[in-house]
Amino acid sequence: MRRWNGWGDETNSLDLPPNADMFLKDKIGTATPLPSVSLESVMSQVPVSRLPEHPLIVVAEEDRVRHARGQSLPDLLASRSGDFGVFPDGVAYPETSDQVAELLSFCGDKDILVIPYGGGTSVVGHINPFQSEKPILTIDMGRMNRLMDLDKDSLIATFGAGTPGPQVESQLHAKGYTLGHFPQSFELATLGGWVASRSSGQQSLRYGRIEQLFAGGRVETPKGRMDIPTFPASSGGPDVREMMLGSEGRMGIISEVKVRVSKLADQENFYVIFFPEWSKAKDAAKALVQSRIQLSMLRLSNAIETETQLALAGHEMQIALMEKALSFRGADSGKCMMTLGLTGSKAQCNAALSQLKKIIKSFSGIYTGTMLGKRWEEKRFTMPYLREALWDKGYAVDTLETATNWENVDNLLNKMEESLRTALNDENEKVHVFTHLSHFYGQGCSIYTTYVYRTADTHQKTLDWWAKLKHSTSAVIVNNGGTISHQHGVGKDHAPFLPVEKGKLGIMAIRSLCDAFDPEKRMNPGTLLVDTNDE
Protein backbone atom coordinates (compact mmCIF):
# COMPACT_ATOMS: atom_id res chain seq x y z
CA MET A 1 0.00 0.00 0.00
CA ARG A 2 1.30 3.43 -0.94
CA ARG A 3 1.90 5.94 1.86
CA TRP A 4 -0.80 8.57 2.01
CA ASN A 5 1.46 11.12 3.75
CA GLY A 6 4.92 10.53 2.32
CA TRP A 7 7.02 8.74 -0.26
CA GLY A 8 6.58 5.25 -1.61
CA ASP A 9 5.38 1.93 -0.26
CA GLU A 10 4.48 1.69 3.43
CA THR A 11 6.54 -1.50 3.75
CA ASN A 12 9.73 0.19 2.53
CA SER A 13 11.98 2.50 4.51
CA LEU A 14 15.56 3.72 4.61
CA ASP A 15 17.10 3.78 8.08
CA LEU A 16 19.73 6.32 9.00
CA PRO A 17 23.05 4.83 10.14
CA PRO A 18 23.91 5.08 13.87
CA ASN A 19 26.35 7.96 13.33
CA ALA A 20 23.79 10.12 11.46
CA ASP A 21 22.46 11.75 14.63
CA MET A 22 25.89 12.92 15.68
CA PHE A 23 26.72 14.17 12.19
CA LEU A 24 23.51 16.22 11.89
CA LYS A 25 23.75 17.55 15.44
CA ASP A 26 27.25 18.75 14.67
CA LYS A 27 26.14 20.47 11.45
CA ILE A 28 22.84 22.09 12.46
CA GLY A 29 22.00 21.19 16.06
CA THR A 30 19.73 18.89 18.04
CA ALA A 31 16.28 18.51 16.52
CA THR A 32 12.83 17.71 17.91
CA PRO A 33 10.37 15.86 15.66
CA LEU A 34 6.98 17.35 14.92
CA PRO A 35 3.85 15.22 15.38
CA SER A 36 1.95 13.61 12.51
CA VAL A 37 -1.81 13.33 12.18
CA SER A 38 -3.77 10.24 11.15
CA LEU A 39 -5.42 9.58 7.81
CA GLU A 40 -8.78 9.33 9.57
CA SER A 41 -8.47 12.81 11.06
CA VAL A 42 -7.72 14.29 7.63
CA MET A 43 -10.58 12.38 6.00
CA SER A 44 -12.96 13.97 8.51
CA GLN A 45 -12.04 17.41 7.08
CA VAL A 46 -13.00 16.59 3.48
CA PRO A 47 -16.07 18.61 2.47
CA VAL A 48 -19.04 17.35 0.49
CA SER A 49 -18.20 17.09 -3.21
CA ARG A 50 -19.57 19.73 -5.57
CA LEU A 51 -19.33 17.42 -8.59
CA PRO A 52 -22.35 16.06 -10.43
CA GLU A 53 -22.50 12.27 -10.59
CA HIS A 54 -20.58 10.43 -13.31
CA PRO A 55 -19.83 6.68 -13.51
CA LEU A 56 -16.06 7.27 -13.82
CA ILE A 57 -15.83 9.70 -10.88
CA VAL A 58 -15.22 8.69 -7.25
CA VAL A 59 -15.97 11.17 -4.45
CA ALA A 60 -14.87 9.05 -1.46
CA GLU A 61 -12.90 10.97 1.17
CA GLU A 62 -9.80 8.75 1.08
CA ASP A 63 -9.43 9.01 -2.71
CA ARG A 64 -9.64 12.79 -2.46
CA VAL A 65 -7.08 12.97 0.37
CA ARG A 66 -4.63 10.76 -1.53
CA HIS A 67 -4.87 13.03 -4.60
CA ALA A 68 -4.71 16.36 -2.77
CA ARG A 69 -0.93 16.76 -2.66
CA GLY A 70 2.30 15.73 -4.35
CA GLN A 71 5.74 15.11 -2.87
CA SER A 72 7.20 18.56 -2.17
CA LEU A 73 8.27 19.58 1.32
CA PRO A 74 5.13 21.80 1.67
CA ASP A 75 3.09 18.76 0.65
CA LEU A 76 4.79 16.67 3.34
CA LEU A 77 4.10 19.37 5.93
CA ALA A 78 0.45 19.53 4.87
CA SER A 79 -0.01 15.77 5.18
CA ARG A 80 1.82 15.52 8.50
CA SER A 81 -0.01 18.50 10.04
CA GLY A 82 -3.40 17.78 8.47
CA ASP A 83 -3.58 21.32 7.11
CA PHE A 84 -4.41 20.51 3.49
CA GLY A 85 -6.58 23.54 2.85
CA VAL A 86 -8.16 22.26 -0.37
CA PHE A 87 -9.14 18.84 -1.66
CA PRO A 88 -10.26 17.88 -5.16
CA ASP A 89 -14.00 17.38 -5.40
CA GLY A 90 -13.51 13.95 -6.90
CA VAL A 91 -11.12 11.59 -8.67
CA ALA A 92 -11.65 9.82 -11.99
CA TYR A 93 -9.80 6.67 -13.07
CA PRO A 94 -10.09 6.33 -16.87
CA GLU A 95 -8.87 3.17 -18.58
CA THR A 96 -8.91 4.32 -22.23
CA SER A 97 -8.31 7.45 -24.28
CA ASP A 98 -12.02 7.51 -25.10
CA GLN A 99 -12.84 7.71 -21.40
CA VAL A 100 -10.39 10.58 -20.96
CA ALA A 101 -12.13 12.39 -23.82
CA GLU A 102 -15.51 11.65 -22.25
CA LEU A 103 -14.39 13.14 -18.93
CA LEU A 104 -13.07 16.30 -20.57
CA SER A 105 -16.34 16.72 -22.45
CA PHE A 106 -18.26 16.24 -19.20
CA CYS A 107 -16.07 18.85 -17.48
CA GLY A 108 -16.70 21.29 -20.33
CA ASP A 109 -20.46 20.80 -20.11
CA LYS A 110 -20.56 21.14 -16.31
CA ASP A 111 -17.91 23.90 -15.94
CA ILE A 112 -15.46 21.75 -13.96
CA LEU A 113 -11.72 22.42 -13.59
CA VAL A 114 -9.31 19.54 -14.31
CA ILE A 115 -6.02 18.43 -12.74
CA PRO A 116 -4.19 15.61 -14.59
CA TYR A 117 -2.49 13.15 -12.21
CA GLY A 118 0.24 10.68 -13.10
CA GLY A 119 2.29 9.18 -10.28
CA GLY A 120 1.71 12.04 -7.85
CA THR A 121 5.47 12.67 -7.56
CA SER A 122 5.52 16.38 -8.37
CA VAL A 123 7.72 18.44 -6.05
CA VAL A 124 6.61 21.83 -7.41
CA GLY A 125 2.85 21.77 -6.99
CA HIS A 126 1.67 20.46 -10.37
CA ILE A 127 -1.21 18.41 -8.97
CA ASN A 128 -2.32 20.49 -5.99
CA PRO A 129 -5.92 21.74 -6.04
CA PHE A 130 -6.64 25.37 -5.18
CA GLN A 131 -9.43 27.58 -3.88
CA SER A 132 -12.01 27.92 -6.63
CA GLU A 133 -15.70 28.64 -6.96
CA LYS A 134 -15.78 25.87 -9.56
CA PRO A 135 -15.54 22.17 -8.67
CA ILE A 136 -12.20 20.46 -9.32
CA LEU A 137 -11.76 16.98 -10.78
CA THR A 138 -8.45 15.13 -10.57
CA ILE A 139 -8.02 12.63 -13.42
CA ASP A 140 -5.73 9.78 -12.30
CA MET A 141 -4.13 8.02 -15.29
CA GLY A 142 -2.84 5.07 -13.27
CA ARG A 143 -5.09 2.45 -14.89
CA MET A 144 -3.69 3.22 -18.35
CA ASN A 145 -0.50 1.33 -17.59
CA ARG A 146 0.32 -1.23 -20.25
CA LEU A 147 2.54 -1.69 -23.27
CA MET A 148 0.12 -1.38 -26.18
CA ASP A 149 2.50 -1.96 -29.09
CA LEU A 150 6.17 -2.54 -29.86
CA ASP A 151 7.50 -1.81 -33.34
CA LYS A 152 10.77 -3.75 -33.37
CA ASP A 153 11.77 -2.41 -36.78
CA SER A 154 11.55 1.25 -35.79
CA LEU A 155 12.18 0.67 -32.06
CA ILE A 156 8.99 2.54 -31.10
CA ALA A 157 6.94 1.39 -28.09
CA THR A 158 3.43 2.64 -27.32
CA PHE A 159 2.30 2.82 -23.70
CA GLY A 160 -0.67 4.07 -21.75
CA ALA A 161 0.43 7.39 -20.27
CA GLY A 162 -0.15 6.23 -16.69
CA THR A 163 2.52 3.50 -16.83
CA PRO A 164 5.00 3.94 -13.95
CA GLY A 165 8.73 3.45 -14.42
CA PRO A 166 9.03 -0.12 -13.08
CA GLN A 167 6.19 -1.30 -15.33
CA VAL A 168 7.69 0.46 -18.35
CA GLU A 169 10.95 -1.38 -17.85
CA SER A 170 9.50 -4.76 -16.85
CA GLN A 171 7.22 -4.89 -19.90
CA LEU A 172 10.07 -3.88 -22.21
CA HIS A 173 12.65 -6.15 -20.55
CA ALA A 174 10.39 -9.14 -21.17
CA LYS A 175 10.88 -8.48 -24.87
CA GLY A 176 14.59 -7.60 -24.69
CA TYR A 177 14.33 -3.80 -24.70
CA THR A 178 14.64 -0.78 -22.41
CA LEU A 179 13.56 2.85 -22.39
CA GLY A 180 16.47 3.79 -20.14
CA HIS A 181 14.71 6.68 -18.41
CA PHE A 182 15.56 6.51 -14.71
CA PRO A 183 14.71 9.62 -12.69
CA GLN A 184 15.04 9.26 -8.91
CA SER A 185 11.22 9.21 -8.78
CA PHE A 186 11.30 6.10 -11.02
CA GLU A 187 9.38 3.93 -8.52
CA LEU A 188 6.19 5.99 -8.84
CA ALA A 189 6.49 8.51 -11.69
CA THR A 190 4.69 7.82 -14.97
CA LEU A 191 5.56 8.05 -18.63
CA GLY A 192 2.94 10.74 -19.30
CA GLY A 193 4.20 12.74 -16.33
CA TRP A 194 7.76 12.54 -17.63
CA VAL A 195 6.67 14.01 -20.96
CA ALA A 196 4.45 16.68 -19.40
CA SER A 197 7.26 17.89 -17.12
CA ARG A 198 10.28 17.42 -19.46
CA SER A 199 11.92 14.90 -17.15
CA SER A 200 15.54 13.77 -17.18
CA GLY A 201 16.77 10.32 -16.15
CA GLN A 202 19.99 9.42 -14.37
CA GLN A 203 21.43 7.77 -17.50
CA SER A 204 20.59 10.55 -19.92
CA LEU A 205 24.13 10.54 -21.34
CA ARG A 206 23.29 7.26 -23.08
CA TYR A 207 19.54 7.34 -23.59
CA GLY A 208 18.79 11.06 -23.65
CA ARG A 209 16.31 13.17 -21.77
CA ILE A 210 12.60 12.54 -22.29
CA GLU A 211 12.53 14.98 -25.22
CA GLN A 212 14.87 12.65 -27.13
CA LEU A 213 12.83 9.58 -26.15
CA PHE A 214 9.32 10.98 -26.78
CA ALA A 215 8.41 10.15 -30.37
CA GLY A 216 4.71 11.02 -30.46
CA GLY A 217 1.39 9.82 -29.10
CA ARG A 218 -2.12 10.95 -28.31
CA VAL A 219 -3.39 13.99 -26.42
CA GLU A 220 -6.99 14.59 -25.37
CA THR A 221 -7.70 18.33 -25.22
CA PRO A 222 -10.81 20.44 -24.54
CA LYS A 223 -10.82 21.16 -28.31
CA GLY A 224 -10.59 17.50 -29.29
CA ARG A 225 -8.14 14.68 -29.87
CA MET A 226 -4.67 15.25 -31.31
CA ASP A 227 -2.56 12.35 -32.56
CA ILE A 228 1.14 13.16 -32.92
CA PRO A 229 2.91 11.09 -35.63
CA THR A 230 6.31 9.51 -35.01
CA PHE A 231 8.56 10.86 -37.76
CA PRO A 232 12.27 10.25 -37.16
CA ALA A 233 12.72 13.94 -38.04
CA SER A 234 10.84 16.66 -39.88
CA SER A 235 11.29 20.19 -41.19
CA GLY A 236 7.52 20.58 -41.50
CA GLY A 237 7.24 23.74 -39.45
CA PRO A 238 7.10 23.99 -35.64
CA ASP A 239 7.09 20.62 -33.91
CA VAL A 240 3.73 19.78 -32.30
CA ARG A 241 5.49 17.05 -30.35
CA GLU A 242 7.69 19.72 -28.75
CA MET A 243 4.60 21.76 -27.87
CA MET A 244 3.38 18.95 -25.60
CA LEU A 245 6.75 18.47 -23.91
CA GLY A 246 6.66 20.49 -20.69
CA SER A 247 2.99 21.42 -21.19
CA GLU A 248 2.21 20.31 -17.60
CA GLY A 249 -1.45 19.58 -18.28
CA ARG A 250 -2.27 23.08 -19.50
CA MET A 251 -3.21 22.02 -23.03
CA GLY A 252 -4.79 18.64 -22.40
CA ILE A 253 -4.09 15.17 -21.06
CA ILE A 254 -1.48 12.95 -22.68
CA SER A 255 -3.19 9.55 -22.87
CA GLU A 256 -0.85 7.46 -25.05
CA VAL A 257 2.91 7.86 -25.34
CA LYS A 258 5.13 6.54 -28.13
CA VAL A 259 8.78 6.33 -27.10
CA ARG A 260 12.09 5.41 -28.73
CA VAL A 261 13.45 2.31 -27.03
CA SER A 262 16.78 0.47 -27.18
CA LYS A 263 17.82 -3.14 -27.07
CA LEU A 264 19.09 -4.22 -23.67
CA ALA A 265 22.82 -3.68 -23.30
CA ASP A 266 25.20 -6.57 -22.80
CA GLN A 267 26.67 -5.11 -19.64
CA GLU A 268 26.47 -2.16 -17.27
CA ASN A 269 28.74 -1.09 -14.43
CA PHE A 270 29.01 1.92 -12.16
CA TYR A 271 32.32 3.27 -10.88
CA VAL A 272 33.46 5.79 -8.27
CA ILE A 273 36.43 8.11 -8.64
CA PHE A 274 37.76 10.62 -6.09
CA PHE A 275 39.51 13.90 -6.82
CA PRO A 276 41.56 15.94 -4.34
CA GLU A 277 39.54 19.14 -4.82
CA TRP A 278 36.57 20.66 -6.65
CA SER A 279 38.23 22.47 -9.55
CA LYS A 280 40.07 19.36 -10.73
CA ALA A 281 36.90 17.28 -10.35
CA LYS A 282 34.74 19.73 -12.29
CA ASP A 283 37.31 20.09 -15.07
CA ALA A 284 37.59 16.31 -15.30
CA ALA A 285 33.81 15.99 -15.68
CA LYS A 286 33.80 18.62 -18.41
CA ALA A 287 36.66 16.89 -20.22
CA LEU A 288 34.91 13.51 -20.04
CA VAL A 289 31.71 14.87 -21.53
CA GLN A 290 33.28 17.09 -24.17
CA SER A 291 35.50 14.22 -25.35
CA ARG A 292 32.28 12.25 -25.96
CA ILE A 293 33.34 9.13 -24.13
CA GLN A 294 30.42 6.69 -24.17
CA LEU A 295 29.29 7.22 -20.58
CA SER A 296 25.72 6.43 -19.62
CA MET A 297 25.75 8.40 -16.37
CA LEU A 298 27.89 10.95 -14.58
CA ARG A 299 27.40 12.56 -11.18
CA LEU A 300 29.86 14.77 -9.35
CA SER A 301 29.48 15.65 -5.65
CA ASN A 302 31.17 18.69 -4.16
CA ALA A 303 33.27 18.31 -1.01
CA ILE A 304 30.38 18.87 1.42
CA GLU A 305 28.11 16.39 -0.34
CA THR A 306 30.96 13.88 -0.48
CA GLU A 307 31.51 14.25 3.26
CA THR A 308 27.76 13.94 3.90
CA GLN A 309 27.29 10.88 1.72
CA LEU A 310 30.22 9.04 3.27
CA ALA A 311 29.06 9.96 6.78
CA LEU A 312 25.54 8.69 6.14
CA ALA A 313 26.53 5.62 4.12
CA GLY A 314 26.88 3.24 7.06
CA HIS A 315 29.68 0.61 6.96
CA GLU A 316 31.78 2.89 9.20
CA MET A 317 34.86 0.68 9.39
CA GLN A 318 35.02 0.13 5.63
CA ILE A 319 34.52 3.84 4.93
CA ALA A 320 37.19 4.77 7.47
CA LEU A 321 39.71 2.42 5.84
CA MET A 322 38.87 3.78 2.40
CA GLU A 323 39.24 7.38 3.57
CA LYS A 324 42.61 6.58 5.09
CA ALA A 325 43.78 5.10 1.78
CA LEU A 326 42.44 8.10 -0.15
CA SER A 327 44.18 10.52 2.21
CA PHE A 328 47.46 8.68 1.64
CA ARG A 329 46.97 9.26 -2.11
CA GLY A 330 46.24 12.99 -1.75
CA ALA A 331 42.42 13.06 -1.51
CA ASP A 332 41.72 14.29 2.00
CA SER A 333 39.23 16.71 3.56
CA GLY A 334 38.36 18.56 0.35
CA LYS A 335 37.91 15.47 -1.79
CA CYS A 336 35.07 15.20 -4.31
CA MET A 337 33.36 11.99 -5.38
CA MET A 338 32.41 11.20 -8.98
CA THR A 339 30.03 8.36 -9.84
CA LEU A 340 29.75 7.27 -13.45
CA GLY A 341 28.22 4.50 -15.49
CA LEU A 342 29.29 2.57 -18.56
CA THR A 343 26.61 0.73 -20.52
CA GLY A 344 26.87 -1.17 -23.80
CA SER A 345 28.75 -4.06 -25.33
CA LYS A 346 31.81 -5.47 -23.59
CA ALA A 347 34.06 -3.89 -26.22
CA GLN A 348 32.37 -0.48 -25.88
CA CYS A 349 32.62 -0.52 -22.11
CA ASN A 350 36.27 -1.62 -22.09
CA ALA A 351 37.21 1.09 -24.58
CA ALA A 352 35.34 3.78 -22.63
CA LEU A 353 36.93 2.65 -19.35
CA SER A 354 40.39 2.87 -20.86
CA GLN A 355 39.69 6.36 -22.20
CA LEU A 356 38.24 7.70 -18.98
CA LYS A 357 41.11 6.36 -16.89
CA LYS A 358 43.54 8.35 -19.03
CA ILE A 359 41.51 11.53 -18.64
CA ILE A 360 40.95 11.29 -14.89
CA LYS A 361 44.63 10.58 -14.31
CA SER A 362 45.50 13.96 -15.80
CA PHE A 363 43.24 15.58 -13.16
CA SER A 364 44.68 13.56 -10.23
CA GLY A 365 41.64 11.31 -10.09
CA ILE A 366 41.77 8.17 -7.94
CA TYR A 367 39.93 5.25 -9.51
CA THR A 368 38.30 2.95 -6.90
CA GLY A 369 36.50 0.44 -9.11
CA THR A 370 32.92 -0.76 -8.79
CA MET A 371 32.44 -1.40 -5.05
CA LEU A 372 30.92 1.99 -4.21
CA GLY A 373 29.26 2.09 -7.62
CA LYS A 374 27.38 -1.11 -6.82
CA ARG A 375 26.17 0.39 -3.55
CA TRP A 376 24.96 3.48 -5.38
CA GLU A 377 23.15 1.26 -7.90
CA GLU A 378 21.43 -0.69 -5.12
CA LYS A 379 20.10 2.50 -3.50
CA ARG A 380 19.56 4.69 -6.55
CA PHE A 381 15.76 4.67 -6.26
CA THR A 382 15.49 4.42 -2.47
CA MET A 383 16.97 7.83 -1.61
CA PRO A 384 13.53 9.56 -1.53
CA TYR A 385 12.81 7.41 1.55
CA LEU A 386 15.61 9.29 3.31
CA ARG A 387 13.27 12.28 3.71
CA GLU A 388 10.93 10.20 5.88
CA ALA A 389 13.83 9.04 8.05
CA LEU A 390 15.07 12.60 8.51
CA TRP A 391 11.54 13.82 9.30
CA ASP A 392 11.27 11.25 12.07
CA LYS A 393 14.46 12.72 13.57
CA GLY A 394 13.17 16.31 13.37
CA TYR A 395 14.88 17.47 10.17
CA ALA A 396 13.37 18.89 6.99
CA VAL A 397 15.13 18.29 3.66
CA ASP A 398 14.47 19.72 0.20
CA THR A 399 16.26 20.37 -3.07
CA LEU A 400 16.70 23.08 -5.68
CA GLU A 401 17.97 22.33 -9.18
CA THR A 402 18.89 24.24 -12.30
CA ALA A 403 21.22 24.11 -15.32
CA THR A 404 23.72 26.60 -16.69
CA ASN A 405 26.72 26.93 -19.01
CA TRP A 406 30.14 25.77 -17.90
CA GLU A 407 31.60 29.22 -17.38
CA ASN A 408 28.80 30.03 -14.93
CA VAL A 409 28.73 26.81 -12.88
CA ASP A 410 30.88 27.93 -9.96
CA ASN A 411 29.32 31.39 -9.82
CA LEU A 412 25.76 30.06 -9.70
CA LEU A 413 26.51 27.10 -7.45
CA ASN A 414 28.24 29.30 -4.88
CA LYS A 415 25.45 31.88 -4.89
CA MET A 416 22.79 29.19 -4.48
CA GLU A 417 24.59 27.58 -1.57
CA GLU A 418 25.29 30.94 0.10
CA SER A 419 21.66 31.99 -0.26
CA LEU A 420 20.45 28.78 1.37
CA ARG A 421 23.14 28.67 4.03
CA THR A 422 22.35 32.19 5.28
CA ALA A 423 18.58 32.43 4.68
CA LEU A 424 17.68 31.52 8.27
CA ASN A 425 20.42 33.53 9.99
CA ASP A 426 17.81 35.89 11.43
CA GLU A 427 16.19 32.85 13.06
CA ASN A 428 19.56 31.72 14.48
CA GLU A 429 19.13 28.50 12.52
CA LYS A 430 21.85 26.69 10.60
CA VAL A 431 21.18 25.10 7.20
CA HIS A 432 23.32 22.22 5.95
CA VAL A 433 23.79 22.69 2.19
CA PHE A 434 25.51 20.46 -0.38
CA THR A 435 25.50 20.05 -4.15
CA HIS A 436 26.18 17.70 -7.01
CA LEU A 437 26.26 18.13 -10.75
CA SER A 438 23.85 15.50 -12.03
CA HIS A 439 23.40 15.84 -15.80
CA PHE A 440 26.07 16.86 -18.27
CA TYR A 441 26.26 18.43 -21.71
CA GLY A 442 29.05 19.78 -23.85
CA GLN A 443 27.65 23.24 -23.15
CA GLY A 444 27.14 22.95 -19.40
CA CYS A 445 25.48 20.88 -16.69
CA SER A 446 22.75 20.77 -14.10
CA ILE A 447 23.28 21.86 -10.51
CA TYR A 448 21.35 19.91 -7.87
CA THR A 449 21.50 21.36 -4.37
CA THR A 450 20.12 19.75 -1.21
CA TYR A 451 19.47 21.60 2.04
CA VAL A 452 18.63 20.27 5.49
CA TYR A 453 17.36 22.29 8.44
CA ARG A 454 15.75 21.59 11.78
CA THR A 455 11.97 21.66 11.88
CA ALA A 456 10.60 24.59 13.87
CA ASP A 457 8.24 24.21 16.84
CA THR A 458 5.20 24.22 14.52
CA HIS A 459 4.43 22.92 11.04
CA GLN A 460 3.49 26.41 9.87
CA LYS A 461 6.75 27.96 11.02
CA THR A 462 8.67 25.15 9.34
CA LEU A 463 6.76 25.96 6.14
CA ASP A 464 7.53 29.67 6.53
CA TRP A 465 11.23 28.84 6.80
CA TRP A 466 10.97 26.70 3.68
CA ALA A 467 9.33 29.57 1.77
CA LYS A 468 12.17 31.89 2.75
CA LEU A 469 14.78 29.36 1.60
CA LYS A 470 12.97 28.40 -1.61
CA HIS A 471 11.90 31.81 -2.87
CA SER A 472 15.12 33.69 -2.17
CA THR A 473 17.25 31.04 -3.85
CA SER A 474 14.88 30.63 -6.82
CA ALA A 475 15.35 34.37 -7.44
CA VAL A 476 19.12 33.87 -7.24
CA ILE A 477 18.90 31.12 -9.87
CA VAL A 478 16.90 33.00 -12.51
CA ASN A 479 18.82 36.24 -11.98
CA ASN A 480 22.21 34.58 -12.34
CA GLY A 481 22.05 32.64 -15.60
CA GLY A 482 20.20 29.50 -14.50
CA THR A 483 16.97 27.92 -15.70
CA ILE A 484 14.23 27.75 -13.07
CA SER A 485 14.22 23.97 -13.51
CA HIS A 486 16.32 21.38 -15.31
CA GLN A 487 14.16 18.36 -14.45
CA HIS A 488 11.42 19.02 -11.89
CA GLY A 489 9.31 21.29 -14.09
CA VAL A 490 7.51 24.52 -13.30
CA GLY A 491 4.28 23.57 -11.53
CA LYS A 492 2.75 26.22 -9.31
CA ASP A 493 5.82 26.83 -7.14
CA HIS A 494 8.09 27.92 -10.00
CA ALA A 495 5.48 29.68 -12.16
CA PRO A 496 6.22 33.17 -10.72
CA PHE A 497 9.88 32.80 -11.74
CA LEU A 498 9.31 31.61 -15.32
CA PRO A 499 8.88 35.09 -16.90
CA VAL A 500 12.49 35.99 -16.03
CA GLU A 501 13.64 33.03 -18.12
CA LYS A 502 11.15 33.27 -21.00
CA GLY A 503 10.68 37.02 -21.29
CA LYS A 504 7.43 38.88 -21.89
CA LEU A 505 7.06 37.73 -25.50
CA GLY A 506 7.90 34.16 -24.63
CA ILE A 507 5.27 34.02 -21.89
CA MET A 508 2.73 35.54 -24.27
CA ALA A 509 3.47 32.82 -26.84
CA ILE A 510 3.15 30.02 -24.26
CA ARG A 511 -0.10 31.47 -22.96
CA SER A 512 -1.49 31.80 -26.47
CA LEU A 513 -0.65 28.16 -27.16
CA CYS A 514 -2.40 27.03 -23.97
CA ASP A 515 -5.44 29.16 -24.84
CA ALA A 516 -5.62 27.59 -28.31
CA PHE A 517 -6.15 24.13 -26.81
CA ASP A 518 -8.01 25.28 -23.70
CA PRO A 519 -9.79 28.60 -24.33
CA GLU A 520 -11.84 28.36 -21.12
CA LYS A 521 -8.71 27.86 -18.95
CA ARG A 522 -10.10 24.65 -17.55
CA MET A 523 -6.90 22.61 -17.56
CA ASN A 524 -4.69 22.79 -14.47
CA PRO A 525 -4.98 26.56 -13.82
CA GLY A 526 -2.05 28.18 -12.01
CA THR A 527 0.40 25.53 -13.19
CA LEU A 528 3.21 26.57 -15.57
CA LEU A 529 1.68 30.06 -15.91
CA VAL A 530 0.43 32.38 -13.19
CA ASP A 531 -3.27 32.96 -13.84
CA THR A 532 -4.92 36.15 -12.62
CA ASN A 533 -8.56 36.95 -12.11
CA ASP A 534 -8.65 39.55 -14.85
CA GLU A 535 -7.56 37.13 -17.58
UniProtKB/TrEMBL annotation:
It comes from Alkalimarinus alittae. This is FAD-binding oxidoreductase. Belongs to the FAD-binding oxidoreductase/transferase type 4 family. It comes from the Bacteria. Residues 84-264 form the FAD-binding PCMH-type domain. Pfam families: FAD-oxidase_C, FAD_binding_4. The keyword Flavoprotein applies. Coiled coil: none annotated. InterPro entries: Alkyl-DHAP_Synthase (IPR025650), FAD-bd_oxidored_4_C (IPR004113), FAD-bd_PCMH (IPR016166), FAD-bd_PCMH-like_sf (IPR036318), FAD-bd_PCMH_sub1 (IPR016167), FAD-bd_PCMH_sub2 (IPR016169), FAD-linked_Oxase-like_C (IPR016164), Oxid_FAD_bind_N (IPR006094). Keywords: FAD, Flavoprotein.
